[in-house]
Amino acid sequence: LWTVRSALDDSVPETLEAVADAGYRNVEPFSFHGYTAEEFSALLAQNGLRAPSMHTSIDALAGDLDQVIADADAIGAKFVTLAWVAPEWSTEEGVAELAAILNVAGERLRRSGKQLVYHNHDFEFTTTFDDGRTMYDVLAESTDPHLVKFQVDIYWVITGGADPVELIEKYGNRVVTLHVKDRAADGSFADVGEGTIDFAEVFDTRPFRYYFVENDEPDDPIDSINDSYANLRALCY
User: Fold this and answer.
1) pTM here?
2) How many Å separate Cα 5 from the centre of its chain?
3) CA distance 25 to 13
4) Do 108 and 69 touch, CB atoms closer than 8 A?
5) If we measure between CA atoms, which residue out of 218, 213, 161, 164 comes closest to residue 190?
6) What is the pLDDT of residues 180-215, one digit of tens each?
7) Chain CA centroid to CA 145, Å
């Protein structure tokens, strides 16, 4: 749904209908756009859509986890995904604090039947510490693998200089969801299947449960999700 955020600003019901018409059956909310979680869930259901994952913030995880759990319950999300932390967390002290927050939140979410998931950008791979480890590796080693899983954003992994296939194979079953987002030759965003990323190679790793199509800067959001869907169908995924 991040791809169609500008359309959601105009009309949530019409945009969700367009998402369903494009062929999608699973979506990942990052906001409820002025609706309650229950109201948003009803709109999803009206269009035959499900939300197995939802995005949340570090402030919500650290400050109002009860509300996060209630929202996840309302929309039926098993995966609660931390969508973003600022690069300022990418110090040894910052990673230690972040890992502590994630472990605590992950335990509470697990008790409620949910799974905490961490979503990457590029700086987790460009930040290295004195021992040569990246921020991503340090965060992975500092969090309980049962409590904190990963959402691998393929575009940002590559932008950060890492290999998404190697990353997925390294962390195996800790990778539960993907963000499928293509990268043009100049580094800009592209509709899936119209850039430089070999998605068939990525999909062959297959430990993940869901993947979500994304283009951060589409020319037209509805055209973008339709183009990405058509291209993925041609790959038989």
Assistant:
1) 0.97
2) 15
3) 15
4) yes
5) 218
6) 999 999 999 999 999 999 999 999 988 899 999 999
7) 18
